[in-house]
Every structure is written in structure tokens, then in C-alpha cells.
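Person: I keep going back and forth on a fold encoding question. Show me how you would write down a chain together with its backbone fold. Please set it down just below, with no commentary around it:
Helper:
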Amino acid sequence: MPRTPGRASPGHARGPGLLTWLSIALIVILLDQITKTLILGDFRYGDSRAITSFFNLVRVHNTGAAFSFLAGAAGWQRWFFTGLGVVVSLFIVWMLRTQGHQRLFAASLSLILGGALGNVIDRLLHGYVVDFLDFHWAGWHFPAFNVADSAITVGATLLILDELLRVRRG
């Protein structure tokens, strides 16, 4: 009997289901929104608090995308990036439904999904994304980011690793 994507062959465990992968995304969303709520409550826009010699907590607002791409646009980017986040999220959920048996692939997509939706929530609630993690060295600052951005980055890294492992096996 031919095997169809997303279906386990007879006698084989299917592995984690869609609920598992959506739960990971939900945990990312909750961690992201809790940390942003704490920053919004304790910091005013532009505030910075040194934690170590190379790390600050800050409160900045990003109306653009990664690295403030299109932040200076006239406001249309809020809805563009919100819509893009929703479309990508729907595609990821479909991928998780059909490819959820591929654990590393699905885990990476779950992290990306949680991060994307965490930032979509910010855009809908505030009109910008709240960033607060500021790493720096010798006067150079990496652009501030948040838990959602971190999850997207880790997810993308795992996605690349999954592909490299797949090519190596193939």
C-alpha cells in the first residue's frame, strides 16, 4: 500500500500530532506576550537598563520588519506585515498537518509559527512590535529583538539543519 504524506504506514507510530506542534507555538506566543507585557509595564519608550557589560533591557517599537525594514514607511507596512504573518501562519499550520511526522521539521515550523503570531498580535494591539533585548559590544548594538524573533531565528536555523540532514541522508 503506498504511503501518503502525513499518514503513518501500518504498524508504525505516527509521532506527535498537530496538537503537539500547535502547543509549542502557543508556548512561544505566551512567553513572548508575557515578556512584552512586563516591558510595557516597567519601561517607557526609549528606556534602557544595563544588565551586563554586553546586554541591556530596552523598550523600542519596531513598525517595520526584521532589522526595522520599512519602519519609515507611511503606515501601510503594519497591515502588510500583519497580513503576511497571517498567510504564513496558515501555510505553516497546513504544513504541520501534512508533515507533522517529521519531528525536526515540524518543531522548527512550530517555533516560526509561534514567533510570527507573537509579532502579529503586537501589530494588531499596538501598531508596532515591542522589542527589548539589546546586545552590544564596544559601542556597536545588534538591533533589539524579542522572544518571538528569537523563536523565528531558532526555528529557521533548525529548518536549515533539517534540510542539511535530509540531503545528507538522501
Q: What stands out?
A: The CA atoms of residues 39 and 142 lie 19 Å apart. The first strand starts at residue 48 and ends at 50. The radius of gyration is 18 Å.
